[in-house]
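One record is set out below.
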Amino acid sequence: MASLREVSDTYRVIVTRRGASEFLALPNGTEWVLPRIEVQLEERIAEQLTAEITRAWGVETYCLSVLTSSQDGEPKCAVMESIRQNDKAPAGTFWVPRVAVSRSTQASEARLIQESLEEVNACAINQKAGPFAKPGWLRELFHWSQERVAPLGLRLTGSFRQLNASPTFSLIRLEAEGGAVWFKATGEPNSHELPITVALARLFPRYIPQVLGVHQAWNGWLSAEVAGVSLDQITDFPAWERAAERLGELQVASIGKTGGLLEAQAKDLRVVTLAERIDPFVARMSELMEMQKKPTPAPLVRSELATLAEGLKESCALLESFGLPNTLGHIDFNPGNILVCGDRCVFLDWAEGCVTHPLLTFEYLREHMARRGIEKPAAGERLTAAYLRAWAAFFSLSDLRRALALSPLISVFAYATANDPWSSLDPVRNPNFAGYFRSLARRMYREAVHAAFRSEVCLD
């Protein structure tokens, strides 16, 4: 049985107001302490914090910063701001002037408050360092968003739902009369999500939410809400078939537009690019295998890594030989990023958008369906048939299916090398990350062996 620590965590909350000159405290004898809130680790932290503060003390807040690191077993910390700046303190609490921070019953808590509020002040001075840690940014967002939605006949109600929070990232739903809009902003390493999202919304409006405005200073954008249900909440298998078919249609529509997508900062995961990474990747995995301390699962030896490298190179060459064009792809193509509404599907969250071989993205969808254990007769074959409908007019089904047989290996390799950590991680400082890449390499080795076996059977 999992321990409580593994499924929940406790946060100290610094609820500020009046430009972070005051914060909410609970009495503790003649002194005071910060409120504490327990949250579930598997759910969105910012959303839980705002909901629980409202429930416990009746104070409407939003997150400025969520600090996930802690020392010496101390609870983690979140900095919030009260929406109403001049209300009386709720019963059993009081507002403490920042100058009185040293009167906390805990020296570590006083130090945490001082450091957190200094960070808030720094972000207020330099918004590029963290616009969403600046007090008052929510009011600015509502004003800016209302200007963008007014021409559409929409009026924001003032209600909102904050899902993600950090100084440079934000995801928040703003309610409007008769609907809602979404604001999203990203910082490093996902600052490229803005240009690719704008490009996709312009090129493929049927498949991407409409962009209503771009906030360049915050690297954010406002999108119309799309009616529908995310695929990860649907057990109806025909919805998965529709998602596969719409993916194929979107990719066919992107043929000839990949140059513009690369200019919009889509990741370059074309097969020719992936092939150039094989030797450096395998060499890096060799280093990580030699550093493994646990006897199980067994690290790959040199001969196995050589087999992996050979299998990757042969599979890349074969995949290219079928002549399918590079198209729009998505390395994080999971059912939570797919909205289904009737016959329409809309695809979200394009930080991992890329230009690559089309079959790799479908492989991610096929694996997610397998993991969910959807029990339908010939589910995998039906999902594949739905996806291939869009391609059948251009390529023979036999070639498409032969190419699909190569996609499990290359899709894992593309996923592993899509971002920098594989080449830059410090295995001593990040042993869990190093173990994760070793597991990916072992899986690729198994796929390479299976691919070689299938090739031998075909030759016989």
